[in-house]
Amino acid sequence: MSIYFDEQKKLFRLDTSGSSYVIGIYDQGYLLGLYYGGRIEDMHFDRFMTRINSFSPYNPKVKDREFTPDSAPMEYGCNGAGDFRISALCVRNANGDNVTDIRYAAHRIYKGKPAIADMPATYALDEADCTTLEIDTVDRVTGLEVTLVYTVFETQSVMTKSVRVHNASDSPLVIERVFSACNDFPTMDFDLITLHGRHARERHIERRALVHGLQGVSSKRGASSHNQNPFAALVRSGATEESGEAYGFNFVYSGNFSAVAECDYNASTRFLMGINPESFEWTLQSGETFFAPEVVCVYTDKGIGEMSRIFHRFYNRNLIRGTFKDAKRPLLINSWEAAYFDFDTQKLLDFADEAKALGIEMLVMDDGWFGKRNDDTNSLGDWYVNTDKLPGGLRPLVDGVHAKGMKFGIWFEPEMISPDSDLFRAHPDWHIHVQGRDPMLSRHQYVIDMSREDVRANIWQQMYKILSENDIDYVKWDFNRHISDAGSVSLPSERQKEFFHRYMLGTYALLEKFVSTFPNILLEGCSGGGGRFDPAMLYYSPQIWTSDHTDPIERLFIQFGTSMCYPTSAQSAHVSACDRTGYETKGNVAMWGTFGYELDPRKLTAEEKEIVRRQIQDYHKYYDLHRRGDLYRLVSPFENRHYAAWEIVSPEKDECLFTLVCLRHFFCGSLYLRLRGLDPDKMYTCDLDGEQYSGNFLMRVGYNMTNLANQDGASIQIFFHA
Ligand code: DGJ
User: Fold this and answer.
1) Does the beta carbon of 366 sit less than 6 angstroms from any atom of ligand 1?
2) Is the CB of 529 under 6 A from ligand 1?
3) Cβ–Cβ < 8 Å for 299, 246
4) CA-CA distance, 309 to 298, in Å (whole number)?
């Protein structure tokens, strides 16, 4: 077992190969979060518990007068009972106050990992994969019961945290906030790394030193969003890609979230991650339980790069599921940037002809095939074929594409409704809105009320008809606006603040129905590019469209940021017709993702077609390396104005694909780039010069890149094999 309980000292220790996490049961049942960091064996934690200050409240029943919840490292800080820091939990009781004070009641340790009701979560491959600790706590005054759930994946330096809140009293309780993870650290010598952005500029890396007070990121847009990702890392000041301590936190949720750090007067840090308390409340009737989503916590003392690799391996192994977790995914061409709304059956069949000749394996018909949709002003919700564009329906197109030996994919935006649609005319109250207000439009559309079973049933019926009557191999599930005017006509007034979370539960229910009914359809997530690029979506869709910006130079920033915690296998990346760089660079950058095309193949010149054919050969050659390999970010575009470089190394360390992209030409006498992650004792053949180099040489001296690809937008890919 990797979770121990020291009965005498009343201490839990949760170990993984690279980390230990210690929780103490203190006097009067207070739960203390005593340690999270590198592996330890002995546990001398007595002195960590006492840090009283003037003005700090104390509990007269606690023997040690030095103890105060105000500055002790609380395992799960609650509101109003002596801990003045930002609270993880705040529950209003029948008296109307929201003082919340939970104490230890019982615990269980067992192999395996429990599912979280109705929610995406990471999973164990088998019982031996991980160990779980559940600590039951109780607020004796209100009858609130809170179970803190921890699972450690021993071999992976990963721990997950989630929380269950149960009402064991006779009266309703109202949860005002419930974070899924709370970590108190005794110091504040950390930098906070987060991923900010906007549409077409997602997940840019931002790093700042912690300061006293509150700081963090959040979303209240009804989606995890382009603007801030539900990822945060606390890295020890001075930590780099290759060295130093890094704690990574990623929320398995696609809705409103908050990730916040507070540094207090003791220069200690509390970090919280969970559902955004703003616009949230949940009424628990007697006997009911609320399940808060899960946070994945990664610890390493080997730098930020290693933190990312731990996330990547873990998500490929314990989050992504279904047929395409391991099965080779088809190389696709998507119609969006090639034709936008302007296509018909013949044009798509012509695309397929050209694409097939190049070696592309699947044609995806994007937005515009349904209702009367010729632009983005109408028809969302009318999921029947536009026969003006596709005479005879989908069949001639789908069969035609299959007859060429290609697969066929289609686009949906199931969570949306256009005011100009048959669905809206039939059901004018199905869109999200609140009484007495005209809801805001965005991209001419409303979001549909996914919290309602009847609404979901209608959308499902329509999708099911299309998917069951046609031989469809792939679906892109898009989501092109955020949620304003949030509320549901189906909820009573006192439950309106439950809407955002109920929306997510409804969406997850529909997604689950989709993947369980059509397990062999490859699902790609999308939200105006990467607006819902989060681990919860990866639970359903093994790949997500990373960004609507397909220019490879912009993509470098987006892909570097996305790789902070999301694996290469998940980052959908296409070569498009944008013209800032040539096709070599477009391919070299898209190769760092799922790889595909998004252009009119009829317009490629003979020379460009030749490049595309070579890229497709490379895609197959390096497919396994990309799916199984470890990513090393060698030179970040956020830190170097001239070039960016990265490397994928096979787990056996016998193959390495190195890529360098020049952002802009620079004068340079000599440029040796040191590789990483190789076996120092292995000899590697370089496919560029045919020479042999030891791993030791390549990592200590480097490879001579002087004047290779040193032009604006140029790039080079070099393969080393042992
Ligand atoms: C946004 C997506 O990111 C694009 O790829 C495309 O599918 C459009 N929506 C279609 O409306």
Assistant:
1) yes
2) yes
3) yes
4) 10
Q: Coil, helix or strand for 249?
A: strand
List the structure tokens of 456: 């979901």
Which residue owns the Cα nearest ligand 1 atom 2?
528
- Tally of CA atoms within 13 A in the half-sphere of 715 that contains its CB: 25
pLDDT tens, residue by residue, 500-551: 999 999 999 999 999 999 999 999 999 999 999 999 999 999 999 999 999 9
In angstroms, the CA 356 to CA 404 distance is 7
And the tokens for 35?
A: 């340690």
Q: Which one of 225, 475, 545 would you pick to mutate in the ligand 1 pocket, going by the greatest count of ligand atoms within 8 A of its CB?
A: 545
Number of H helices, E strands in the chain: 12, 38
| Sign of the Cα pseudo-torsion (152, 156, 158, 160, in order) | negative
Taking the centre of ligand 1 as the mean of its atom positions, its distance from the CA of residue 409, in whole angstroms, is 14
Any atom of ligand 1 within 6 Å of the Cβ of 548:
yes
Residue range 292-342, pLDDT digits in tens: 999 999 999 999 999 999 999 999 999 999 999 999 999 999 999 999 999
Would you state the structure tokens that stand for residue 149, as one six-digit string?
A: 């759930």
Q: Is the CB of 568 under 6 A from ligand 1?
A: no
CA atoms within 13 A on the CB side of 43: 23
Whether 54 shows a pLDDT value over 90: the answer reads no
Whether the pLDDT of residue 49 is over 70: the answer is: no
**Residues known to be catalytic:** 478, 548
Which atom number of ligand 1 is nearest to the Cα of residue 598? 5
**Rounded Cα distance, 487 and 495, in Å:** 9
Q: Which domains does the chain have, with CATH numbers?
A: 3-318 (2.70.98.60), 330-545 (3.20.20.70), 631-721 (2.60.40.1180)
**What are the angstrom distances between the C-alpha of 605 and each of 268, 575, 609?**
61, 15, 6
Q: Could you tell me the distance, in angstroms and rounded to a whole number, from the CA of residue 336 to the centre of ligand 1? A: 7
Measured from the CA of 367, which atom of ligand 1 is nearest? 10
| Chain-centroid distance, C-alpha 210 | 24
Atom 4 of ligand 1 has which residue's CA nearest to it? 528
Centre of ligand 1 to C-alpha 530, Å, is 10
Q: Could you tell me if the CB of 292 is within 6 A of ligand 1?
A: no
Cβ distance 386 to 452 under 8 Å?
Answer: no
DSSP 568: G
Yes or no: say if 578 and 606 are a contact pair by the CB < 8 Å rule. Answer: no
Tell me the per-residue pLDDT of 105-132, one tens digit each, with 9 for 90 and over.
Answer: 999 999 999 999 999 999 999 989 999 9
Please tell me the distance between residue 235's alpha carbon and the centre of ligand 1 in angstroms. Answer: 35
Element (H, E) at 414: none
> CA-to-CA distance for 98 and 92, rounded, in angstroms?
4
Burial of 603 (0-12, 13-18, 19+ CB in 10 A): exposed
Token output for 127: 């019982």
* Both tokens assigned to 552: 């490879």
Residue nearest to atom 6 of ligand 1 (CA): 336
Read off the amino acid at residue 467.
Answer: L
Q: What is the DSSP letter of 612?
A: H
Ligand 1 centroid–CA 226 distance in Å is 14
Please tell me the distance from the alpha carbon of residue 290 to that of residue 453, in angstroms, as a whole number.
Answer: 19
Per-residue CA distances from 549 to 202, 552, 563 (Å): 9, 8, 16
The per-residue b/e assignment along 278-309, b for 16 or more CB within 10 angstroms, e otherwise, is ebbbbbbeeeeebbbbbbbbbbbbbbbbbbbb
Burial class of residue 600, CB neighbours in 10 A (0-12, 13-18, 19+): middle
Report the alpha-carbon distance of residue 103 to residue 82 in Å, rounded.
13
Q: Is the CB of 528 under 6 A from ligand 1?
A: yes
Beta carbon of 370 within 6 Å of any ligand 1 atom: no
Ligand 1: nearest atom to the Cα of 334: 5
User: What number does the ligand 1 atom closest to the CA of 527 have?
Assistant: 3
> What is the pTM assigned to this prediction?
0.98
